[in-house]
Specification:
The structure is a homohexamer. Chain A is α/β, with parallel strands linked by helices. Chain A has 9 helices and 10 strands.
């Protein structure tokens, strides 16, 4: 099967890292197509970045539909454009935040999230509420690392993530850590080893869920709000979306 | 004061109608600038339309910042791009769904929403949850009118909205109706008269709230998640967002 | 328009202060009638004080109806008698707690409340639940100031409020402070300046909301539970309520 | 032990009926003092009636404290003045709505409420939310009987209550009925027999709970928000509340 | 009346202690039958212990039905087997956690729980959610005492419970403590005296509630999910459950 | 990998059917060990049946630990013994209700459940609350089929399930159906074809999730409440649980 892993930001190095992490957990027969949009922000650290990135996600879904795709992963912890993306395809579309929450809830009764910046913690809080997972999460914690520091200064970033995770372990009465950024996808094992707790990371969780859904032949429902959008005109720079 | 009322779709006729409705309730000294993006969908009837429209909303906030603006209204019932927009300005930004919910909750203990299409009802449900208003809303009802029918076939649209509102009045044990589409902004009084219930409409509610906030000198907080987005590069068609 | 701002306690000095704060934000054409009941507690610091004050609120609504009133504000942070008051008039009736919560939610994703006494914090908690705003409020904090200290010892009171607000700013991960007592209505700007965060105060918020609602011709629904109470006999000291 | 059962309205016939029902379930050694305030509404059918009745409840608590009382019951389904009453005494104070909800939750996983008027249903809804019982209650149903019809036209009232209860049994997927008015206290057994479902009535439930709490020596906490109100001046018709 | 107080673990010393505590609050005419299953764990400190203990509870309900029983108490703070037990009898069945929560909510607006082990705190959290009491409980605290230490080392256990309760009093802004283990049933008065707060203990609360329900002739509903289980075959070691 | 699929009831024919359904979706390298306890009820249709079945589930986990197992599935829609089972192993343990809810939430915004008996609907409601999925589920519907009718009278059972699913499709405004019984595992495709909606079935969903978790090396956390139960004595028929 072919899974299109969409890094919603435009930093190719992060796309590569995400693709490598995805491949690491994929089944033998799974083809991982790691992509990022041609247009958009180099990292996602605000509601605005996320809104722009959602367009890139939709473009990549459209490209994926042309290329033939069995499932999609949106590899940013805010799950940008998730519902829009689902409207554009019958294939399953999985956000890495929802994937991580679902998986974490299966191995631990309570978890904490360790994310990059405090300001994006609110996005995680909102997703917890929306996905019904708020009661499972003890605390959203920020290591206060700009996203691209994960690329430019990985050692220091790793240490701050571990330090914050250890605080979570000591203080939060939890059974697992959820990593709150797609850019941490390569660190899962090392963090788990350093912290001594199960660590759930979204990119890998989403790839495994995508494989599971394809096995089950489960596809995005075309009944109700996820049906193909009504055909209509778009104008200006979005005129190519007209149908 | 100057309020920029942003119609997130690109249909100028709807922008005019929204602007007229806004002007109708504005104070003498209030200047209403009704605008719509140059790029985007001609109507908003899906998650995808909403995601694209959010970019147009952000563009219009940026234009408004150049022009000098005291408050913004996002005149689509899904409040597309609301948090992103708030990051881009210190001026208040008000979505018409939240405005309508807040106002309705001040005059009635329970209300129902009458919207256009059933498929967008889920967006209203999600906003009710997010804004803490779910317990106030008895039912989200759809008149099953495509948005542009409000422009092209206003008489028939009006009659279907009234019919659905009368069903709500008869069955839902409510004190008020909330209209679930910015394109209904000119119909408020007529619907209220026909239905015999208070009717809350979001464009007008948001304009009045915006005036109230400017009076109070309340501005979007720049502490926490609504602070100006971190400066960064954007590439491709969004490169003009780089800072 | 004429707005009757009801201080539910009987301390005229506080009524004056509230009236002045209301006038400070009111539009040019707005007449502020600041009143307090003839009977009731000199301050409101308990459920019992609030229950008694609710009668005074209702008396003032009745007086306001005789005098002609376009909107009412209940200027105590527990919103005492709110639903009863709404039954007695078609004019909008706004509690300062609900006004402050609604306004704060439009400028910040999360806020904390700084109130007078810890024992009344529970009233704020209950209103947060009832108005659907619990998720928005990080913490209800008390400066542990008896209400009348705001009159008798304003300097010390101010300093304690600022100190508690600064703790909220440092610890609560918030974008705004909500002041939890009508008696703080004159301190908004000074506290905001001292704390360096947006501060939302309920009396002023409610006046601006009331003006907005009158602009919109929104009136308390007479359908359902807010309809005029069934006519009936009252006996004893409340016999004047018979209809 | 001595339990003061306070009918918050001023209709002596209803007080008698409530007292009789209370006595019917009381233990041998329990003295039931059924009282009603000297001042207030003859029945409680609105938020306003409830606000006024709360004063009468507080007066009766004060009288009960003079007389020596082991526990209080507030015998109106809106639990008017409950928290205020608790501040005024160390004895337990139990509202009949909360008593009925607690008891019903012990014998059935889901119940429906059958109350008098639709307009007071909202009070039951609010209490269900506040007491954490919303998930237990399938539906709040109204027989649309004015409260005093229970006195003046008991046969017709009984039949309407039974009819509505039978609809609840047929449609609501429930295990029990909760009667939503203190004035139905004498009908419990007859309704249960006619409907063929367990019926929980609040006055009797509250008396039994009060006895239980006295057995346990549980008293209203004087730590936190239920502590005796701060001593202060009251003026006008409430000056006798000054301490 | 005859109340069967079931200690779900098999430690007879704890059964005796629970029986004594139950008798201490029972009315003169109440017969307390304190029992424990012949099979099961010697203490309950995990989900697994609880699952096994649920069978013992059901066996004791069956034995109680043979012997004639007016009400049952399940004397373990996880309320193991509660719904199953209710299916097996028309008599009321009360768990000590629910009993304690209900009673605590009647005397204090907020409480904290002091339990034995941190790992069983999650069971209390889940029950708080299920019973609608989560908002009432500020914190679930563990004294980190293995359950049988309450038998073997009562003095040390008492001191740790008091120490944790004093922390709750100092930090949690509460009006009462709920004791989170049936094995603390004999300590209620001593803890309350040492802590200076009302203390609610479940065994005694449940006995008093059971007496109340029997007075009211309230029985477990046989309509809906608590009806007698469908007759069917059981095999193996559970074949005696066949009907 | 080796997945032990535990049918918690003792009907071997159902175990076979479940095993076949599991095998149908399993990856080539996955070994499915379908088992049922030696002791317990022949079907699960009540809280009591579920409590007894939980013991059988634990026995099968213990047997699985001896045999070497990579993941477990509990193949009854009430997820009996789920937390206890998790304590007994490091391997993932997945209930079919949670698996179905998670998967359904990834392909549809709202779903309805079609289960066997109305009386067990309450179990589904409780799990929806506990797993945070209540907002996703529009309605729990019962086809009113005894569980073993699925074995003895499959054609009639199938028709009733389809009929109820069609009602859900027509009335519930949903995007998917969740099948609410492990005994329907073989019917998924046929029901989906007959109803024309995506159908999510728990056994298959859980097997796919289990494979995903094993791929990810995610194991049940041994920190906190899912840690191995404290070693202790069990007596009587459960003495073999002593450690």
């Amino acid at each position: 099967m072919r899974i299109r892993v969409i890094n919603p930001n435009t930093t190719a190095a992060m796309t590569d890292k995400i693709g490598t992490a995805a491949l690491h957990v994929a089944r033998p027969g799974t083809e991982i197509i790691a992509v990022n949009p041609l247009s958009g922000p180099v990292s996602i650290e605000s509601h605005f970045d996320e809104a722009v990135a959602a367009i890139g996600v939709c473009e990549e879904i459209r490209a994926g539909e042309q290329a033939g795709t069995d499932a999609y992963v949106i590899a940013c912890f805010g799950d940008p454009g998730l519902y829009a993306a689902r409207e554009l395809t019958r294939a399953p579309v999985i956000g890495i935040a929802e994937a991580a929450f679902h998986m974490a809830s299966l191995i631990a009764t309570r978890f904490s999230i360790v994310t990059t910046l405090g300001r994006t913690g609110i996005i995680a809080e909102r997703l917890l509420d929306e996905y019904g997972m708020a009661v499972r999460c003890r605390k959203v914690r920020a290591a206060e690392i700009p996203v691209l520091e994960l690329e430019h200064n990985p050692r220091a970033a790793f240490e701050r993530i571990v330090a914050e995770s250890l605080r979570a372990k000591a203080e939060d009465n939890i059974g697992a850590i959820v990593l709150g950024c797609g850019g941490m996808a390569n660190l899962t094992d090392a963090i788990s080893a350093a912290v001594g707790l199960p660590v759930v990371e979204g990119v890998t969780a989403a790839v495994a869920l995508a494989e599971a859904m394809v096995s089950l032949k489960l596809q995005t429902s075309k009944f109700g709000d996820l049906d193909t959008p009504p055909a209509k005109a778009f104008v200006g720079q979005f005129s190519h979306f007209s149908r």
